[in-house]
Design a protein that fits this description.
By secondary structure, the protein is α/β, with parallel strands linked by helices.
């Protein structure tokens, strides 16, 4: 049985009906993105608890708390070993029991989604909010002046109107993998539906036409806030960013983006960052957790947290850092049922967001025969096809154009399929068949194959999230300079297509890093040697391919 089967069966029975309803509603619209990186020396192992060390499954944005945690260690003797994960993936690990014995605590932006999972009942020993940060909109000065907005008066409806009029574009993380994206999705759906309490399926269906219009303005997607901020800064042609207030203010400080940070007047969802002990943790670990929590909520630590990270303090008497507005905003509730939450995610993935166009540039040279590399590649790609009824984020999306571009000495084939929402199984079956037919032979023409991928993406739907995934197990045998010259001559719009490269086998980190830096992409590690700071993934080809899905 596939390791994803449990996820697939659990996900979206209720969401299928909701997605169908949304498809109908969207048709009424006018005119017609640890699944993460270990912060310690390696991935924790079950039964490896050490006295005085707390293994924590955490949201990746908490990397900025390192100075605070260093001080916490001095004050309490507790060493915190962080392993990064997306919020929904972490919820899966806890609910399924995979976190038991592997971590003593979780520290996510929110436990709201986890609490909706019936399997999670009894898994959480205690949870204590440490700080908070609301979802907000960061807007470039030029766009703010063009729109004539008064920041304190902006609503989600006003943002929607600006997008629908073609006056505003923005970036946002993938709600299926990032809680900042999911919180933004809930905030926008609540604002546009006029919901007065927790979102219902009827609220989401009512808002569907305007939500679809709203997401036409999304020009950047990402599986993590950090990469999104970097991509946003490099692009320069996207007007705004939807993210946590703390991320936006940190960008202003660290990158000089000068964004005006707006908390829409009709309400936002706020991350409370509860440090949560697991019931499976031994008693000594729970004591360490309590000592750590007590320290983090002390006045000195709260002051350091808000001043260093722009998150809001939760301890009484500690003032927010300068730059944090003190006027109140309505706190929007989280969806009250799993079917509504998962249904909202399903509709975003398959109905509301712009479709994806993805080219997989696949090394099928002779060296792929070694160590069953070709078999591992086939397995990883087949996993991405799932089934027609797979859960959200567990297969290629409805409306997605998937192109396989296998190469050796040259491009061997260009195989393209579009996933039809009405009959996804036919395209998924065809992709599986194409994957199974891959055969290793020839050399390694990386750069010529990348050039062919960009040329392919120049023919077809421009109103889509485009990306290239490069997987190679060796160094290229053709010219980097020729590719760089070709890339420099591309129209600006096509230069915005990132290459997400997968380090695998004997491929060159230097070569792949150069490609990702040139194209604004990211390097993912599928080697067996651990996870270096510059790469994501780590030791698993299917894990790297799955993580890349959040960026497409």
């Amino acid at each position: 049985m596939s390791r994803r089967t449990a996820r697939i069966r659990r996900r979206l029975a209720a969401a299928v009906a909701l997605t169908a309803a949304l498809l109908g509603a969207a048709a009424c619209t006018s005119g017609g993105s640890s699944g993460g990186t270990s912060g310690g020396p390696g991935t924790p192992k079950a039964g490896a608890y050490h006295q005085g060390a707390l293994r924590v499954l955490a949201s990746s944005e908490l990397a900025d708390l390192k100075p605070v945690l260093d001080q916490a260690k001095k004050a309490t003797g507790v060493t915190v070993e962080l392993t990064w994960s997306g919020t929904l993936d972490a919820a899966e690990q806890v609910a399924s029991g995979k976190a038991d014995g592997k971590y003593e605590a979780i520290w996510l932006s929110s436990n709201d989604y986890l609490r909706l999972r019936p399997e999670a009942a009894g898994k959480l020993s205690s949870e204590t909010p440490v700080m908070s940060s609301p979802v907000a909109l960061g807007v470039r000065p030029q766009a703010l002046a063009r729109l004539g907005w008064k920041p304190e008066e902006v609503t989600w409806s006003a943002v929607h109107q600006a997008v629908a009029a073609g006056q505003l574009s923005y970036g946002m993380t993938d709600p299926v993998r990032s809680n900042s994206g999911f919180s933004a999705l809930v905030s926008v759906a609540s604002g546009l539906s006029g919901a007065q309490s927790a979102l219902t399926e009827a609220d989401v269906a009512k808002a569907a036409p305007r939500l679809k219009e709203f997401f036409t303005g999304q020009k950047l997607t990402s599986g993590s806030s950090g990469w999104l901020a970097s991509a946003y800064t490099q692009r320069g042609d996207v007007d705004a960013l939807v993210n946590y207030e703390s991320v936006l203010l940190s960008m202003n400080r660290d990158s000089g983006t000068n964004l005006t940070v707006i908390r829409p007047r009709d309400g936002v969802v706020t991350a409370a960052y509860p440090l949560t002990l697991l019931t499976s943790a031994p008693a000594a670990a729970r004591e360490s957790g309590r000592a750590l929590t007590e320290y983090l909520r002390s006045a000195g630590a709260q002051k350091a947290i808000t001043e260093q990270t722009f998150r809001r303090p939760v301890a009484p008497g500690v003032a927010p850092a300068p730059g944090l507005a003190t006027d109140k905003r309505r706190e929007l509730p989280f969806p009250g049922s799993l079917s509504v939450a998962d249904g909202l995610l399903a509709s975003y993935e398959n109905v509301l967001r712009r479709p994806s166009r993805t080219v997989y540039v696949l090394d099928t040279s002779g060296s792929m025969r070694e160590d069953n590399r070709i078999g591992r590649l086939k397995s990883a790609l087949t996993d991405l096809t799932g089934t027609g009824s797979s859960g959200t984020g567990r297969r290629f999306r409805d409306r997605e154009e998937v192109t396989l571009l296998p190469f050796g000495d040259k491009v061997k084939k260009v195989l393209t399929h579009v996933v039809d929402p009405g009959s996804p199984g036919s395209a998924l079956d065809a992709i599986r068949g194409d994957v199974e037919s891959l055969e290793p032979d020839g050399g390694t023409a990386v750069y010529g194959s990348l050039q062919a991928a960009y040329q392919h993406l120049g023919q077809g739907n421009a109103d889509a999230f485009t990306s290239i995934v490069l997987m190679t197990d060796g160094e290229s045998g053709d010219s980097a300079k020729d590719f760089e010259s070709f890339y420099a001559g591309l129209p600006d719009a096509r230069k915005h297509t990132p290459v997400f490269a997968v380090l695998f086998g004997d491929s060159s980190r230097k070569e792949l890093s150069r490609i990702t830096e040139l194209t604004g992409g990211r390097l993912f590690d599928a080697t067996d040697t651990g996870v270096p700071p510059a790469a994501a993934g780590g030791g698993s080809l299917d894990g790297a391919f799955e993580e890349i899905r959040g960026y497409q």
